[in-house]
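Run folding on both entries below.
>entry_1
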Amino acid sequence: MSERDENEREFDLRWADAAEHKEPSARARMLAARWKHNPPGPVPFRADPDHVSARRSRSSWISTALVLGCVAAVIVLLGYADFRAPY
């Protein structure tokens, strides 16, 4: 690309960025049209701590134990395969 083309392109980008009115994206237009007739309900920024169940905390421990168990099984399996391999 020549230097003149790069300067023209840079000018076009500066011109576009300096526009007073920018058209919203298609998704923004779609959501604005949808929400005009059916506005969304209020959504809290953070969930209430009362809604966090004990099951959720137990499942994190279970998944951690499962991952660590799988890692230990792979280590034992690799050690067993190395022990059985003839030299």
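>entry_2
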Amino acid sequence: MNTESGEVNDWMLSSEDRASQIVSLVNEQGFQSIEALSARFGVSTQTIRRDVNALCDKGLCRRRHGGIDLLPDGENVAYLARRVLNQEAKAAIARCVAALVPEGASLFFGIGTTPEQCAHALADRTRLRVMTNNLNVAAALVRNTSCEITIAGGRLRNLDNDVVAGEAHTFFSHYHVDIGIFGVGGVAEDGSLLDFSPDEVHMRQQLVKHCRQRFLVLDHTKFGRAATVRGGHITEVSHVFTDQPVPDAIADMLQQAHVHLSTANGDSPVSLTPL
């Protein structure tokens, strides 16, 4: 990269790396034109159009005349596409979480890609007892024969590989565990927690109600992100794990509520009360 101009040479990036940077630009700045992206990455407009078409086909962004833009407010990105968004940040968050989970802990895992990354980070931890409605979490842990896994029953959401409706509504209420690990669709400026359906909110609130420690895991793009269904508040959790400094107003709320905050940028996690 030319550190003075900020432009990226074509030979320095693979198509996957370029696509990942395009998604990050759209998430941070909104609409990006084909011409601007072509100039930024030093590739032809035809190459950028191929990148844009692939990203939109995967449900990561939407096409607009002359460029690429965010998905409409209230619409979530497809799960397989979300897996590649901010992947390094989510993995760093997961390592931060794993440092605070002891051997033999009992755990709830909620839906989403960051809780899934946390499961991968804990895949070698022994004697975990896990209850989850996220089949991706179960798949990440199932090869560990010392891990006991209980899965919520009900109708599977095919594209998300999770269960959030019907008989699953009471799943978490049957247990009381050491730590609940969960994400959200977004966090409003006033600290309200947001998701994309009433079922998702119901399952998250049931999870939070029945665990001793509540670990909210989310990357920086969730702050200020639009989602349609409100439920819960960020000050009701025990510990927030993210990858970049949170907005000042949120930081003040967390401090006043005595909620621990860890950023996965090299900062040491804050010690919790022993389980």
